[in-house]
Amino acid sequence: MKDSHPAPVESRAQDPDERRLVARCREGDPRAFRILVGRYQNRAYGLALRLLRSAPDAEEVTQDAFVRAWKGLADFRGDAAFGTWLYRIVWRRALDRAAVLKLRGLREAPLEGSPALETADEAGGRSRAGAGGLDEEAGWERLTQGLTEPQRAVITLFYYQDLSVKGIARALEMPEGTVKTHLSRARAALREQYQAVEAGGES
Amino acid sequence: MKSDHLETLLDAFGTAGLSQAHRAHARSCARCGAAIKAAEAIEAALAEPPPSAPMALVDQVMERVLLVERAKLRAQESLRTRPNGGWRRWADAIAAEPAAAVVIALAPVVLLVGIVWPETASALVVTVRDALAAWVGSAAPGVMLAKSGLEPLTASARLLLDFTLIPAIVALGFFAFPWIGESLRQYVSPRRPKAPRPR
Fold first, then answer.
1. Of A1, A11, A170, B28, which is least packed with CB atoms within 10 Å of its CB?
2. How far is CA B161 from CA A123, A129, B124, B158, in A?
3. Is B14's CB within 8 Å of A160's CB?
4. A36 or A203: which carries more pLDDT confidence?
5. Least confident of A23-37, A78-92, A126-140
6. How far apart are CA B43 and CA A43, in angstroms?
């Protein structure tokens, strides 16, 4: 599964291949953009999914973010990696979407059949596997349900997308101190949640 | 070493912030050992990739990108082939929004009525106000409305009111046209390019 995900975004900051692709996109070459979409689709979708916890919403936000990226490539200065810039768009679109969902009262009720719902449902019945009993997405869902959106974004970008604090600060347009605070609070909340689950499982 | 200190370290830096001394301490301290075990399990879970993007995502994105490009090309082509592109572009933009076109068409009528027939304009305002008052009165009987009528106003105040109506209607139209336009667009058939004439 990891194979389908590209190398960390920051290591691509000076990637000449990516620079060429971005330059071709700015000249209006859709084939170059197709390659970029292929490279970043899983990461962009993953971030959106972990922020929104609903597969259909995550898909819509991801599509929307890529289309906006295409339209906005003229404004992309190239001083950050394309991925960092894309994450910023995904993050903004996901926040907008989350606000709309909150207004509609659908936030915690993903559509039936969506992966987010399936994993949440399966969380109760599936045998707990892996390190410390966390089974991938169900474990992730269960662990992170109490986190705020910025905390989810920060831990996703830090642990899964391998971005540094500086890279996250650029992507989410936050001061580095704020990113560190979100990371620290998220870790503390996760640890408490994990230990509570463990204690519940043992008793 | 205090367990609080180790937990603060874990929260700030994760397991990467632990030294050999911390780990050695954790072997003999149940609380610290549990905290490290929890942190390691959490980090492993967080590093797991979420489900991959749907198979068709790239195609769907590219379909939308191509639509954007086609619309851009059409706009460029339309500007290139038409003389006086500046004002024609403005006129086309207005014509593309049905509500904006209605507002632009109505504004001079309102202006004309206000200037040429100020009494008629005042009468229209009174009629609209009375109708509104009647509607609100029937919909919410408990609501007290001020008595309508413009008689107490001076002629200049009436004229001022008439002129205020025009920008108000235009502003209302422009504020409203994003959604009015959207709802009306379904009834407006899209322009089709003319077929080339046979030679």
1. B28
2. 66, 74, 12, 5
3. no
4. A36
5. A126-140
6. 18
The phi-psi region of residue B188 (left if phi > 0; otherwise alpha if psi is between -120 and 50; otherwise beta) is beta
Burial status of residue A175 (CB atoms within 10 A of its CB: 0-12, 13-18, 19 or more): exposed
Which residues, at least 6 apart from A36, have a Cβ–Cβ distance to it below 8 Å?
A: A18, A21, A22, A25, A82
**Residue with more model confidence, A8 or A167:** A167
pLDDT at position A177 over 90: yes
Structure tokens that stand for B196 in this block: 């080339």
Closest chain B residue to A137 measured between Cα atoms? Answer: B50
Residues A58-79 have a mean pLDDT of 88
B124 is written with which tokens? 């229209």
Query: Which chain A residue lies closest to B64 (C-alpha atoms)?
Result: A67
Q: What percent of chain A has pLDDT over 70?
A: 74
Tokens at B135, concatenated: 């509607």
A50–B40 CB contact, under 8 Å: no
Non-local (6+) Cβ contacts of A156 within 8 A are A46, A47, A50, A51, B46
Give the CA-trace dihedral at A46, A52, A55, A59, to 10 degrees.
-70
CB contact (8 A) between residue A159 and residue B64 = no
Looking at residues B127-138, what average pLDDT do you find?
A: 67
Which of residues 68 through 107 in chain B touch A, CB cutoff 8 A?
A: 68-69
Give pLDDT, residue A185: 92
Q: Is the ipTM of this complex over 0.90?
A: no
